[in-house]
């Protein structure tokens, strides 16, 4: 019986992001293409018999009770009546509030790991439904395949975009998702696309302009990156990315990055590194 496990908790990019409308509950209807990247936090889990959920590596500025990791494990206990607990260690690499989904990914990895270690045998669909209660982006990390997502991000049509090499830049600012979605100037009326009609040359990120207006550092990062390749923001920001024709060209550009920004080179993955790792264990 498996008692402990170490898993990656990868980031995602929104290769495009359209806002199609606003629902009565204030949430927005979106269309987006999610792709995972091979740049991840690392999470280790070990079963406890006393029922406690212990995150032994707290994140600065995030109380453990507010941490999506702890919330995910407790929600799973509550949904299943499981009496077991869990010790969790996190190595944080993903910038927070960067639109690359670190918190949501950590929650998804926790749900997947506890499902295995507590021998709950919940399906991916059941875990994704539980994950949606924690955040709109959690289900995609449980789904684990690059996908065209609709609704608030829970209706999926799987796709296989090219697994490009990306340079991802963090402009050194945090952008709050709520601030973007409550901004009066956010365009909210982009017509819906049929997934089969998706043409990547004709789509963009509807949140990008207002984030550039409110956070000039994001615009600066986009303008720096566009000298090398077409650049775009992911999610509600603040990270921006561009596809490069080789890892060495991306690393050469990274060496010239202004000191106010940080960045990393990664590769797009149409199967999440989390799911690749779990497949190797099973
Ligand atoms: C828009 C995306 C695209 O990937 O942005 P990023 O957060 O990744 O940048 C995500 O769907 C975000 O997902 P997530 O970060 O899990 O959002 P949640 O915690 O569920 O919601 C945070 C807040 O964003 C707003 N929100 C979120 C999702 C959505 N479809 N409509 C919204 O209006 C709501 O105000 C909500 O209170
Ligand atoms: N495990 C976690 N990792 C990162 N952020 C978390 C976590 N738990 C809660 N949060 C909160 O969620 C916010 C958004 O984090 P994150 O998911 O990294 O950004 P984004 O949604 O922009 O991709 C953070 O600023 C933090 O306050």
UniProtKB/TrEMBL annotation:
Its EC number is 2.7.1.148. ATP binds at residues 95-105. NCBIfam families: ispE. GO terms for molecular function: 4-(cytidine 5'-diphospho)-2-C-methyl-D-erythritol kinase activity; ATP binding. It comes from Echinimonas agarilytica. SUPFAM superfamilies: GHMP Kinase, C-terminal domain, Ribosomal protein S5 domain 2-like. Keywords: ATP-binding, Isoprene biosynthesis, Kinase, Nucleotide-binding, Transferase. The lineage of its organism: Bacteria, Pseudomonadati, Pseudomonadota, Gammaproteobacteria, Alteromonadales. Belongs to the GHMP kinase family. IspE subfamily. GO terms for biological process: isopentenyl diphosphate biosynthetic process, methylerythritol 4-phosphate pathway; terpenoid biosynthetic process. This is 4-diphosphocytidyl-2-C-methyl-D-erythritol kinase. Pathway: Isoprenoid biosynthesis; isopentenyl diphosphate biosynthesis via DXP pathway; isopentenyl diphosphate from 1-deoxy-D-xylulose 5-phosphate: step 3/6. The keyword ATP-binding applies. It catalyses: 4-CDP-2-C-methyl-D-erythritol + ATP = 4-CDP-2-C-methyl-D-erythritol 2-phosphate + ADP + H(+).
């Amino acid at each position: 019986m498996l008692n402990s496990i170490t898993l990656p908790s990868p980031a995602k990019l929104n290769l495009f992001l359209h806002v199609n409308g606003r629902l009565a509950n204030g949430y927005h209807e979106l269309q987006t293409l999610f792709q995972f990247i091979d740049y991840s936090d690392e999470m280790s889990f070990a079963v406890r018999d006393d029922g406690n959920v212990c995150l032994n590596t707290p994140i600065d500025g995030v109380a453990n009770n507010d941490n999506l990791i702890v919330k995910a494990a407790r929600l799973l206990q509550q949904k299943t009546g499981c009496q077991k607990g869990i010790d969790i260690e996190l190595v944080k690499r993903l910038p927070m509030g960067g639109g690359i989904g670190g918190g949501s990914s950590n929650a998804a990895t926790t749900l997947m790991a506890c499902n295995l270690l507590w021998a709950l045998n919940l399906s991916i669909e059941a875990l994704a439904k539980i994950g949606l209660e924690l955040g709109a982006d959690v289900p995609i990390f449980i789904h684990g395949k690059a996908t065209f997502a609709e609704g608030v991000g829970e209706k999926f049509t799987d796709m296989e975009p090219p697994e490009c090499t990306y340079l991802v830049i963090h402009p050194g600012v945090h952008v709050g998702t709520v601030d973007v979605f409550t901004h009066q100037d956010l365009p909210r009326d982009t017509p819906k696309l049929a997934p089969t009609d998706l043409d990547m040359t004709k789509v963009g990120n509807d949140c990008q302009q207002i984030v550039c207006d409110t956070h000039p550092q994001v615009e600066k990062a986009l303008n720096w990156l566009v000298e090398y390749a077409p650049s775009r923001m992911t999610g509600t920001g603040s990270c921006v990315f561009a596809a490069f024709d080789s890892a060495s060209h991306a690393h050469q550009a990274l060496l010239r990055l202004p000191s106010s920004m940080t960045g990393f080179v990664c590769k797009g993955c149409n199967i999440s590194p989390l799911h690749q790792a779990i497949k190797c264990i099973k």
